[in-house]
Design goal:
The structure is a single chain. Helix 4 packs parallel to helix 13 and helix 10 runs parallel beside helix 11. The protein is of the alpha/beta class. It is globular, with a radius of gyration of 19 Å. It has one domain: Alkaline Phosphatase, subunit A (3-Layer(aba) Sandwich). The longest helix has 24 residues. Strands 1, 2, 3, 4, 5, 6, 7, 8, 9 and 10 form a 10-stranded mixed beta sheet that branches.
């Protein structure tokens, strides 16, 4: 469906039209069928989950429409045939990357300033997981894209909070600390940019993030080896996935959350860099899934969830900047998707009904067997 055809429609109608367009395209390309709800799935102590979110969504024009197909060959040709794909995932909250990711991670729409150094107000999935299931601190980790995500691992809620959250690794902070000189910093500058939105101030670091002197012990990786490996990487997201794979090898956490951020370079206004970010995210998702299948601690017992935090502006909204921003709050900025792969998930099927991004955490609750009691989302029956 062309953007011009959406003019005059309300938000719900536009979301439905986007969903229908994605469904028809996927069925044409992959032959995907329709999903039915799964019932009575019993939680297992051996289950693992890897969640991948995109800090900065990619529009359908550059992904699921025919002209964008070449940018996501791995999602379409490798992962989709193994997945249940939800075409109509709506984010009704604030469209800032930290606050939106926090909303996904808590299952409730958070309302704090996106650039503030605060913890989520509602309990996170990591706290539900660890408290209800009595899991150790080493069993839940977040690899986050920038210093602004330092507090994502645990909430400010009085019944949860400190001591019950996930360990947070900030690869850019680690790399910055590992560099020994200003000349080193110049060489790694492409990996160190903290965000692409240039806020008026950057939040101070706090929370349960891992520091450089802990890295060697946790990841079994020396500072020199870390810096040397980073030298060969193209982007911050490659650094994040490298850290995530080290965590998988050394600690095999049952709950691993990775936020990718390269797509958000769209804020620079350079379309080619935005498309490069899409292609890289596509490749890195496939690499993570392949790593899961090759690791005996993860193979055949891991479900992977992939979803953007939200979308981007349309080209037809006079108040937006097209691919560059997500400031209008229009339906294209809010309507995203979710791909779910794993041994308990139906393969090559499409779910058209509307769900919300905050539904992920109650879904993980059913999957693992914890109660996301303060979430306002609902379990997605087709994948839980």
């Amino acid at each position: 469906m062309r953007l011009a055809e959406l003019k005059g429609r309300n938000s719900h109608e536009i979301s439905q039209a986007i969903s229908l367009s994605r469904r028809n395209f996927l069925r044409t390309v992959t032959g995907a069928g329709s999903a039915v709800a799964l019932r009575g799935m019993a939680a297992s102590k051996n289950r693992k989950a890897v969640v991948v979110t995109f800090g900065g969504g990619a529009r359908d024009d550059e992904t699921f429409m025919p002209d964008g197909q070449e940018n996501i060959p791995h999602l379409l040709n490798e992962l989709m045939p193994q997945a249940t794909f939800l075409t109509n995932v709506v984010n009704q909250g604030i469209l800032g990357h930290y606050v939106a990711t926090a909303s996904i991670a808590t299952g409730a729409y958070e309302t704090f300033n996106n650039f503030a150094a605060v913890s989520p107000n509602n309990p996170t999935v990591f706290e539900y997981f660890r408290k209800d299931l009595k899991r150790p601190a080493t069993d839940a980790w977040v690899v986050a894209p920038s210093n602004g995500f330092a507090r994502i691992g645990e909430s400010a809620h009085k019944l949860y909070g400190p001591g019950l959250g996930a360990g947070v690794i900030l690869p850019k902070r680690l790399l910055s600390a590992a560099l020994s000189s200003a000349s080193d910093g110049a060489r790694y500058q492409h990996l160190l940019r903290d965000n692409y939105e240039t806020p008026l101030y950057a939040p101070s670091l706090a929370g349960h993030q891992i520091e450089l002197d802990q890295m060697a012990e946790v990841l079994k990786l020396s500072v020199d080896d870390f810096a040397a490996h980073a030298r060969n990487l193209v982007s911050p997201d490659e650094l994040s996935v490298y850290i995530a794979r080290q965590l998988m090898r050394q600690l095999s956490p049952s709950l691993l959350w990775v936020t990718l951020h390269d797509i958000d370079i769209a804020h620079s206004g350079t379309f080619s860099l935005y498309v490069d970010g899409i292609k890289r995210s596509d490749r890195l998702c496939a690499e993570l899934w392949q790593a899961i299948q090759k690791d005996p601690e993860y193979a055949n017992k891991t479900t992977m969830f992939i979803l953007p935090d939200f979308g981007r502006d349309s080209d037809i909204d006079s108040g937006g900047n097209g691919f560059q921003h997500h400031r209008t709050g229009d339906a294209l900025s809010r309507t995203t998707w979710m791909m779910v792969l794993g041994p308990d998930v139906k393969q090559n099927v499409v779910v058209d009904r509307r769900v919300e991004s905050i539904d992920l955490i109650p879904t993980l609750g059913v999957y693992f067997g914890f109660d996301a009691r303060l979430s306002t989302g609902k379990p997605i029956a087709e994948v839980a």
